[in-house]
Design brief:
Oligomer: heterotrimer
Chains: A alpha+beta, B alpha+beta, C alpha/beta
Shape of chain B: elongated
Strand content of chain B: 15-25%
Number of helices of chain A: 3
Order of helices and strands of chain A: HHEHEE
Strand content of chain A: 5-15%
Largest interface: A-C, 53 and 78 residues
Structural class of chain B: alpha+beta
Helix content of chain A: 25-40%
Distance between the termini of chain A: 37 Å
Number of strands of chain B: 16
Shape of chain A: flat
Strand order of the largest sheet of chain A: 2-3
Number of domains of chain B: 3
Strand order of the largest sheet of chain B: 6-7-10-1-11-12-13-14
Distance between the termini of chain B: 77 Å
Helix content of chain B: 40-55%
Chain lengths: 95, 484, 484
């Protein structure tokens, strides 16, 4: 399946990565070659094969409903770009 | 043209677990910003989710309560999008294989008939944080305390046909989840939130109209008003020859209108895929059966029992079972006093009026069910009369005494049933009111019946209300009639 | 003293021949002298290491120790280490001092090992040459014009150059085994779920697994003893008893059934590599093993399936790097979208962006079934190939990579770089363990023999590798300029 300029721009927007037109052209080239390689998957009939998400046939373990975490806000916010009054700051969110 | 409204609801219920769905952080409401946001909730590099057993248990109990299909396997998926209150850039949710399948919820709209509303499914997911807009020089502040709180999203079929039905559905849902104890149902704190899908179609038409989704309608009243506004809006558009646009709208309670959320963003592409950090959730029959054994008596069953076994009216049964706190209180009162109708009257009458006056929920009533039950025992065994009972109730409300017997003793409210003492009081009243006695004697038979009330009042006053009114009445009539 | 194996070092510490402080000083000196050439470390934590060494010596004096107390090693800069810069070799995390420890780091701390620092790698573990690092490429100690392999190239190069006796890496598609092969050391990728992923910066969650690099299989066994085991913080970690991996190292190999996958000896395999691998297999035959050809029919689909699954998971795993709570944030964002797009555009390197775009595209609406679902189906077929093979043989053997280490800058095309992982990538898709052991040289460039076993077959793999090392000396060879 071919990938076009618009597909790359759309993916970049969905992934929130800034790219310019020259970047997009380069990615069209790269992703086209990768997808051509990936398209080998289409050669095999997988009708009726269950998709495999995890390599082991394990099931989800459950955790007891207990509060085990304490307040570590100050420590966590030492790595934050911008905080005030305990909140993480971002450019204004418009709803 | 005659229009029919079609409504489907997506109700998000915050589950009342102690800790979050995928981390050991507290879910308590109202903490300092980000003080309950752990490494996992913040989505720090390298952290991983582990599922809270209680969230699973609560979702299953909900499913069992609506008679839903419970699949053996459910799968967590990632819903990918960017938003500042969504720390990982995806919400862990369920899509193709939810934990609860098709079920049904019965509603009773105001002035309407009972109706079965089909539930499409219910799934587990994590709540997002909150954006705060005040005070940061043009920036927003992000609080992630709420991020990771377990949500059960309950999706109805488009079976609702009016704003009243929608609010009845929401009430029934509220009643059910609070009965089950899986949510505190506190709508003001966002424990139950609702997205409403509304469309209209010409009456009789089979296919659905284009729907608008109204986000985050968070009270029973707003649901009705938002729908009413939205239906009008859609009718206006269609009758003007326009087309309803499929979009997300926001209800503004202050303006009492819905308005379009900015549709600048492209149609979302959430790129759902199975979460590789979580394995398929398998629930075996024994576990489901165990959860079933933990189900309380559900609202419908309770209502039915109140009518058939306790002999209450359909109205009383409905009111008493609408909130599990009320039902619990009623049942505890009944257990002490043994008289369902008396208990029902007092819970809905004196107690409810007093709670309203002081704006208290029944769970914080100053008069406990045991105290009220004790009071009603004394009323029933004629220790006190009705008037004294109300006085006892007021004293208990003021928390001045531990139980009804203490009040009765301290205030001397015990009914005087000693005939000798009563006769003496009556004699005094007759002697002190010669004019009224003469009028009584001269009156017609018919008028005399009414005039006796005056003397009863005087006797009650003389005994400070402690006399048994029926007994006074009887003795008075005997004495007065002897004068004829 | 510095050129001993871990096992020998531990014995020397126990006998009092030397102290941990001596070891740590010695290695820190070497790092200072030699690492400028190969760039294998991003961060060296010398002061902390010396402090820990003193503590370890004190503990040894009190006999309060485990097998590895006081032994130094290095960690790939993908393991979160509290209070230490943890970058994943990305500009995005170039300022990230982790506020918490990975489970593996906690386990190593309680085993008493001492980390000398954090090693260079391909950014977010995406790469096969260690050229994709914000901190510059790593050079192969055998020849500075060659790559060390990737993505755990810094760990492999540091061990090969004698800067540390052992190191930890992660392997998502060959990132331990291929650099081990290129650098002439031993590297083990355990079974998926054997080692906790908590605190390891995620690339592709269903494929990532941590493992050791050492000078010998015995050293890998010692380290696996320390890091393996169930972790309540990782839902995908397995609760299964951890054997003593050193206990069975020396078991004889009589009757061992070795399968040679015919697909691993076909077109594209360097003749010198093939010869070295076949010579190694002959050593096993001489030790009593039987050798048969087997087929893994879906081998050619492994790279295509991987380059759908891994980028898809990565596109979601890396969404948390948004410039809000940690990591790189662009200057003066004009709005939220600008904040996201520039922070991510600036913070991620070329290969990372390529894979995020790839994964985002294949998960989008309209492409999911053709790519993601299809790749997951093929993944099942690939796993089945291995399960079928292990019905017939005990282990599989083949080359770890089709060529020895290539030149820096030689693989400019992403696809030809991806195809380098043809022999390692299927193992991650299947979740089975694999080890690469030194097995000779081509033009003074090391060759790795890859040995594969069934799920949780690490004990046997280490046994098979150890016995080989008892009969060969490839693992004892050192690059000339790094001897002594």
């Amino acid at each position: 399946m071919a990938i076009e300029h618009a597909d790359v721009l759309r993916a970049a927007h969905l992934a929130r990565i800034s790219i310019d037109n020259a970047d997009a052209d380069r990615y069209v080239g790269d992703l086209t070659r990768i997808l051509n390689m990936v398209d080998r998957l289409q050669e095999i009939d997988t009708e009726g094969v269950q998709p495999l998400s995890h390599p082991l046939d394990a099931t989800q373990p459950l955790r007891a409903d207990e509060v085990t975490e304490s307040d570590q806000r100050d420590q966590f916010q030492t790595v934050a770009p911008e905080v005030a009054k305990g909140l993480y700051l971002v450019p204004r969110v418009v709803e | 043209m005659q229009w029919e409204t079609v409504i489907g609801l997506e109700v998000h219920v915050q589950l009342a677990t102690r800790s979050k769905i995928f981390s050991g952080s507290s879910t308590a409401f109202g903490a300092e910003p980000n003080s309950q946001a752990s490494a996992v909730d913040l989505g720090l590099p390298g952290v991983l989710p582990v599922l809270n057993e209680n969230a699973v248990a609560m979702a299953l109990r909900f499913g069992l309560a609506i008679d839903a299909e419970i699949p053996d396997v459910s799968v967590f998926e990632r819903k990918n999008y960017f938003y500042p209150d969504l720390p990982k850039g995806y919400q862990t949710s369920q899509m193709a294989q939810p934990i609860v399948g098709k079920g049904v919820l019965e509603i009773l709209p105001e002035d309407g008939e009972r109706k079965q509303i089909r539930i499409h499914h219910a799934h587990l997911e994590e709540d997002a944080g909150k954006s705060l807009h005040e005070d940061f020089a043009g920036m927003s502040g992000i609080d992630l305390n709420r991020a990771g709180t377990p949500l059960l999203e309950i999706v109805s079929e488009p079976d609702l046909r009016s704003a009243k039905e929608a609010s009845a559905y929401l009430r029934a849902m509220h009643t059910l989840v609070t009965y089950l104890g899986i949510s505190d149902g506190n709508m003001a704190e966002g424990s139950m939130r609702c997205d409403v899908n509304v469309s209209i179609r010409p009456k009789g038409q089979q296919e659905f109209g284009t729907r608008a989704e109204i986000k985050n309608v968070n009270s029973f009243r707003f649901v009705e008003r938002a729908i009413a506004y939205e239906v009008e809006r859609q009718i206006d558009i269609l009758e003007d020859g326009g087309k309803v646009v499929q979009e997300t709208r926001l209800y503004d309670p202050d303006a009492d209108e819905t308005r379009s959320m900015r549709t600048k963003e492209e149609a979302n592409d959430y790129r759902y895929f199975p979460c590789p950090d979580l394995l398929p959730l398998v629930v075996d029959q024994a576990y489901v059966d165990h959860q079933r054994s933990l189900l309380p008596e559900l609202p419908a069953a309770k209502r039915e029992r109140y009518e058939s076994e306790l002999g209450l009216s359909s109205y009383d049964a409905g009111v008493l079972t609408a909130h599990h706190d009320t039902a619990d209180y009623f049942e505890q009162t009944l257990e002490v006093c043994g008289d369902a109708k008396l208990a029902a009257n007092w819970v809905q009458g004196e107690l409810s009026a007093q709670l309203n006056r002081d704006s208290l929920p029944i769970s914080e009533s100053p008069v406990s069910a045991a105290q009220l039950g004790g009071l009603l025992v004394r009323l029933k065994d004629d220790t006190i009369n009705g008037k004294a009972a109300k006085q006892v109730f007021q004293e208990l409300w003021q928390r001045r005494f531990e139980d009804a017997d203490q009040v009765i003793e301290a205030k001397g409210l015990k009914q005087v049933t000693d005939t000798g003492a009563l006769e003496a009081a009556i004699d005094e009243v007759i002697a002190a009111n010669p004019v009224q006695v003469t009028q009584y004697v001269e009156a017609t038979e018919e008028k005399r019946g009414k005039m006796v009330g005056f003397f009863v009042g005087q006797v009650m006053k003389a005994t400070r209300g402690t006399a048994n009114p029926q007994q006074v009445n009887k003795l008075l009539k005997e004495k007065l009639d002897a004068l004829l | 003293m510095l050129d001993l194996t871990l096992a020998e070092m531990a014995r020397g510490l126990t006998s009092g021949e030397f102290k941990s402080v001596d070891l740590v000083r010695g290695f820190l000196d070497r790092i200072q002298q030699r690492d400028a050439d190969i760039n294998s470390f991003i961060t060296v934590t010398g002061d902390a290491a010396l402090e820990q060494a003193e503590a370890a010596d004190a503990a040894r004096a009190k006999d309060d120790v485990g097998a590895l107390t006081g032994v130094p090693l290095a960690l790939k800069d993908i393991f979160c280490t509290e209070g230490v810069l943890t970058t994943a070799a990305s500009k995005m995390l170039s300022n990230f001092v982790s506020p918490y420890n990975a489970t593996v780091v906690e386990k190593l701390n309680s085993a008493g090992t001492i980390s000398l620092g954090k090693t260079n790698m391909d950014e977010f573990a995406m790469g096969s040459s260690n050229e994709n690092s914000f901190f510059g490429a790593v050079k192969n100690p055998w020849d500075h014009s060659l790559v060390p392999g990737g993505s755990s190239g810094g760990s492999a190069a540091a061990v090969a150059a004698g800067l540390v006796p052992a190191a930890l890496g992660t392997d998502t598609g060959g990132s331990i085994r291929q650099p081990a092969a290129f650098c002439g050391i031993t590297g083990l990728k355990p079974t998926y779920g054997r080692v906790s992923r908590y605190g390891i910066i995620a690339y592709a969650s269903s494929l990532d697994q941590a493992g050791p690099f050492g000078r010998s299989a015995e050293d890998c066994a010692l380290l696996l003893n320390a890091i393996a085991g169930h972790d309540g913080r990782d839902s995908t970690s397995v609760s299964r008893v951890v054997p003593d991996y050193t206990a069975t190292l020396a078991q004889p190999l009589d009757g061992l059934k070795i399968g040679l996958p015919v697909e691993y000896f076909g077109d594209g395999l360097d003749a010198g590599v093939e010869q070295a691998v076949r010579e190694a297999v002959k050593v096993y035959e001489s030790l009593g093993a039987q050798v048969v050809d087997v087929s893994l029919p879906h081998t050619q689909l492994a790279v295509p399936a991987y380059y759908v699954i891994a980028p898809a998971e990565a596109s979601s795993n890396l969404a948390r790097y948004d410039g809000v709570r940690f990591g790189h944030r662009c200057d003066s964002p004009v709005d939220l979208e600008d904040l996201y797009k520039r922070s991510r555009g600036e913070g991620f390197g070329e290969e990372v962006k390529r894979r995020i775009l790839m994964g985002t595209h294949t998960l989008s609406e309209g492409f999911y079934d053709a790519y993601y679902r299809k790749a997951q189906q093929v993944r099942r077929l690939i796993r089945q190939d291995f399960l079928d093979a292990f019905d017939k043989v005990d282990v599989l053997m083949g080359p770890a990579a089709p060529t020895p280490a290539f030149k820096l800058g030689e693989q400019a095309d992403p696809v030809s770089m991806y195809l380098q992982d043809i022999y390692t990538i299927a193992i991650n898709l299947a979740g089975i363990p694999g080890i690469s052991v030194p097995a000779g040289f081509v033009d003074n460039r090391p060759v790795g023999l890859q040995i594969l076993g069934p799920h949780f077959g690490e004990s046997h793999l280490l046994n098979v590798a150890h016995v080989f090392q008892q009969h060969t000396d490839w693992h004892q060879r050192r690059p000339e300029q790094y001897q002594g």
